[in-house]
Amino acid sequence: MNPLEFFLKNRAEILTLTGEHVWLVGISMLLAAAIGLPLGMLLTRWPAGRRPLLGGANIIQTVPSLALFGFLLPMPWLGARADRLAITALTLYALLPIIRNTYTGITGVDPAVREAARGVGMTDRQLLFYVELPLASGVILAGVRVATVICVGIATIAAAIGAGGLGEFIFRGLAMVNNQLILAGAIPAALLALTADFVLGRLEGRLRARA
User: Fold this and answer.
1) pLDDT per residue over 138-158, tens digit each?
2) CA dihedral 25, 30, 36, 37 (to 10 degrees)
3) For residues 200, 202, 208 and 211, what is the CA-based torsion angle, rounded to 10 degrees?
4) Over 80: is that where the pLDDT of 176 sits?
5) CA distances for 80 relative to 73, 77, 103, 154, 161, angstroms
6) Which of 8, 78, 83, 94 matches a 20 to 30 Å C-alpha distance to 124?
7) Residue 180: how many CA atoms within 13 Å on its side-chain side?
């Protein structure tokens, strides 16, 4: 059976696991954005927190994915369900690019623009939401783009703890020494990463052009 025939025969399972993969990545990215964006904004107003927050997020990035799953597994609420564990790990991995790019984008706004905004009477809150964030949106989205691609890749490892996703095919194929099974997981995962990168890249380009 050639790879195309295998894909057609198993398309229902491939679509199901792709849906699980997208769900894991989507929930993780929503949580990472909800945490990372405010933290990045906070660092622009609290420079003393830059070293511990960015340092902590950077340390998480250096921990191998399986090791991080192992560290989180003994936690009572997280370890009870594989999907919670996987989402928590993916969220932690996505934080660094989002925090760093949010901070970099806002601090990179032209000082003359800030002075002009303050000159017309804007408060610090208005300056952040009406001037700095719109101008930094392209850089911020670049961080979200990087984080999304990272999550799509690492989510394949989540199958090792029973969280589902396209990694199920990859691990099954490795165990059975079956290249078709490996490709059934690897190809859709790669396509998801490329699609996310393309779509977010186009949106990033438009935001940068407007800024």
Assistant:
1) 999 999 999 999 999 999 998
2) 140
3) -100
4) yes
5) 8, 6, 35, 20, 11
6) 94
7) 11
